[in-house]
Design goal:
alpha+beta; 3-stranded mixed β-sheet
């Protein structure tokens, strides 16, 4: 059962998507894509659910905004906070009008593809991978990277553009480690730790939006 409501925070309207199911034991709340998503026990009253949202929404929005890679003054590029210049941002020596994050990613894909490719080729050589992988750069938010065995290709999320080179390299090493082990076994992490000594620290930074 799905129902929809609305709430207002700082004069902005937000949608509330409520999922009720007998499997849910308690009310939980997530904030994603400027929308609140609620999971609640089947017989929870709408009044109780909306009260729960009102109590939690400010903290969720603030925590989300604190993790954003940009603000009104600038944006993180390769771990460095880069200032806007009259609404424009410099990408690899070229200036683009910053409209929104998705438009920024489209521009960054074009300007930084070769950068990501060179990092991939470097670690293929270091790790002794003789058949180069093809590289895809996509606008995805759910993953940092993936390795496709069927197409011998590696996909990286363009959102990595915000992170330092060290953190980007940790993702590339992770995906190339799947060349040797398809699972996430002890041997798999043994390969990663051989080429990225502080992998666990890098992973935490990626997850928590620490860009440098």
């Amino acid at each position: 059962m799905i129902k929809y409501f609305n709430t207002i925070y700082k004069n902005k309207n937000y949608e509330i998507e409520v999922h009720k199911d007998i499997r849910y034991r308690r009310i939980t709340l997530r904030y994603k894509n400027e929308k609140f998503i609620v999971n609640a026990p089947l017989f929870s009253s709408n009044t109780l659910i909306l009260k729960f949202v009102e109590e939690k929404k400010e903290k969720l929005i603030k925590n989300f905004n604190n993790k954003l890679p940009y603000d009104e003054k600038g944006i993180y590029i390769l771990g460095n906070y880069t200032l806007f210049n009259e609404g424009f941002i410099e990408l690899n020596g070229k200036f683009y009008l910053f409209k929104d994050l998705n438009n920024f990613y489209k521009c960054a894909k074009k300007e930084y593809y070769n950068f990501f490719l060179l990092r991939l080729r470097h670690y293929e050589e270091v790790m002794g991978i003789n058949v180069p992988y093809s590289l895809k750069i996509k606008i995805v938010s759910s993953i940092f990277g993936s390795n496709s065995y069927s197409t011998h290709s590696i996909t990286l999320s363009i959102k990595l553009i915000h992170f330092s080179i060290e953190l980007i390299d940790s993702v590339i090493i992770h995906e190339l480690a799947h060349h040797f082990y398809r699972d996430h076994s002890k041997n798999f992490y043994g390969v990663i730790n051989k080429y990225c000594l502080n992998y666990n620290e890098c992973r935490k930074k990626l997850i928590h939006g620490v860009y440098k």
